[in-house]
Amino acid sequence: MSSELVPVMSADDIATFIEQHFPQLNEGGQCYFIEAIEPGAATMRLEPDKRHLRPGETLSGPTLFALADFAAYVVILAHIGPVALAVTTSLNINFLRKPSLGTLYCRCRIMKLGKRLCVVEANIYPASGGDSVAHATATYSIPPR
Amino acid sequence: MSSELVPVMSADDIATFIEQHFPQLNEGGQCYFIEAIEPGAATMRLEPDKRHLRPGETLSGPTLFALADFAAYVVILAHIGPVALAVTTSLNINFLRKPSLGTLYCRCRIMKLGKRLCVVEANIYPASGGDSVAHATATYSIPPR
Amino acid sequence: MSSELVPVMSADDIATFIEQHFPQLNEGGQCYFIEAIEPGAATMRLEPDKRHLRPGETLSGPTLFALADFAAYVVILAHIGPVALAVTTSLNINFLRKPSLGTLYCRCRIMKLGKRLCVVEANIYPASGGDSVAHATATYSIPPR
Amino acid sequence: MSSELVPVMSADDIATFIEQHFPQLNEGGQCYFIEAIEPGAATMRLEPDKRHLRPGETLSGPTLFALADFAAYVVILAHIGPVALAVTTSLNINFLRKPSLGTLYCRCRIMKLGKRLCVVEANIYPASGGDSVAHATATYSIPPR
């Protein structure tokens, strides 16, 4: 846990920013939604469709990676504001269980927000309940402010 | 390096297998190509298009992740054959440099092929020359044979 | 979170097992202590001394790695029992803040306990309070039972 | 690979620096030796003893972690010089095979040397020949110069 983190953007602010700067994210139909922004944390929702499937009617690895990476980007954006651009420098993901086709949540938590690096943890779990399907930790480089 | 690895499928065998089992991979136009299968290694080629871009005309993180993950799947398939289905259990990726829109190669090398786990290293670099843009290591679970 | 995990060994059982099988762990003076075993989790305590320091009066990276690895071993042992021997297959650690010389706790949580693999999360924080100093995720191979 | 890297310290320079700044490293008998410094790379040698063993006459995980971390520190030091102090921010290690008690080499290669971050790959293999026993990638934060 990282103490004393205060969001500087609301979920609506971020949604507007994303729409302007990442229009391709929801191309082919919106699938990513911001559920909540809290001190040090953010929750995203993915409504997957056929694009996200792999054989065996399970969601693909790149889908889970993209969800974790995007949620991490959002939680950082929420805490450093729209000026700076965070860039992923590394991401480690564990695939825990096969997710079936259905709504997923990704809860992302800032473990450290430094001047140059931000380290984030992401936990992905099905909206229908049950254990986590994936867990990731990621590091982002933050440009000089 | 893992000694004494011998591929049991050719690049053409694998391409046919992929086409049958992962038709969605190249949906919207083929972008992944198998360049070479060698003892303990495989090289893939990605011909990226607009789907793979993120702001700043650079290729997105999920694109590089998907390329590494797919190349790792291919090198394992080449060495254990089409019967077994390898599943990614974890993947660690370092983003080293921003790749511009252009052909990428991913060279994948088996570090260990055990009875239950296969550990693979993937190196992604631009066809136009220059330093690596990303490096990944990944572990796959191999079902009992 | 992994549901329905039940420990099969107590903290005392594990301490005795460790003493018998890993005598070198506390050579030069006991420094590792088991604080608590709970369903799906375990907490270890490290009382560091000069062996664990690096320049700048901070605890060394290998000290934090060893603590996370050992705590993960303990939580798995607690849940699969003394018969099986889990082996670390991979470990990813983020160093978040410089820990000063003082008691550390490591809380370890099982994210997945499968037939062949166990995935664990470890969080290291100072007994004196304050933010986490390191966070790790690790995968262990579990021999056939 | 990272092009155009030139070492600014020799193996002897580094050994002297280490002796002065990390005297505890070889406490209880010298076990780490610098074998070679090359453009973008370094090779370390570990002569393990009883301290490094775990049950089953194999070298412990923390021993391999410490070797990779130290070799990475050395290769960075060799290329940025003795002024700056690099700090490990994250390390991912795969344990590939059980190393028996005997001399190990660790070859470390810089994948990226940026202004703020250095990403390094480390490969550990027995002096007696044979496959790698561990592989790590690590990121180091470099202070402003």
Structure explained in plain terms:
Four copies of one chain form a homotetramer. Chain A has about 140 residues and is α+β, with helices and mostly antiparallel strands. Chain A has helices at about 10-20, 60-80; strands at about 30-40, 40-45, 55, 60, 85-95, 105-115, 115-125, 135-140. In chain A, the strands form two sheets. A six-stranded antiparallel beta sheet of chain A has the order 1-2-6-7-8-5. The mean pLDDT of chain A is about 90. The interface between A and B is medium-sized, with 22 and 22 residues. Strand 5 (about 85-95) of chain C pairs antiparallel with strand 5 (about 85-95) of chain D.
SSE arrangement:
The structure is a homotetramer of 145-residue chains.
Chain A: H1 11-21, E1 32-38, E2 41-46, E3 53-54, E4 58-59, H2 61-80, E5 87-95, E6 104-113, E7 117-126, E8 134-141
Beta-strand residue fraction of chain A: 35-45%
Biggest interface, which chains?
A: A-B, 22 and 22 residues
The Rg value of chain A, from CA coordinates, equals: 15 Å
Note poorly predicted spans of chain A: none
Stated plainly, the CATH topology of chain A is called: Thiol Ester Dehydrase, Chain A
> For this entry, what is the oligomeric state of its chains?
homotetramer
* Overall tally of domains of chain A: 1
Distance from N terminus to C terminus of chain A (CA atoms, Å) equals 23 Å
Going by CATH, the architecture of chain A would be Roll
Mean pLDDT metric of chain A: 91
Q: Which structural category do the helix and sheet elements of chain A fall into?
A: alpha+beta
SSE string of chain A: HEEEEHEEEE
CATH class of chain A: Alpha Beta
Structure summary, number of beta strands of chain A: 8
The DSSP helix count of chain A reads 2
Tertiary shape of chain A: globular
Helix residue percentage of chain A: 10-25%
Q: Write the CATH homologous superfamily of chain A.
A: Hotdog Thioesterase
Strand order of the largest sheet of chain A: 1-2-6-7-8-5
Main sheet: strands, sense, barrel of chain A: 6 strands, antiparallel
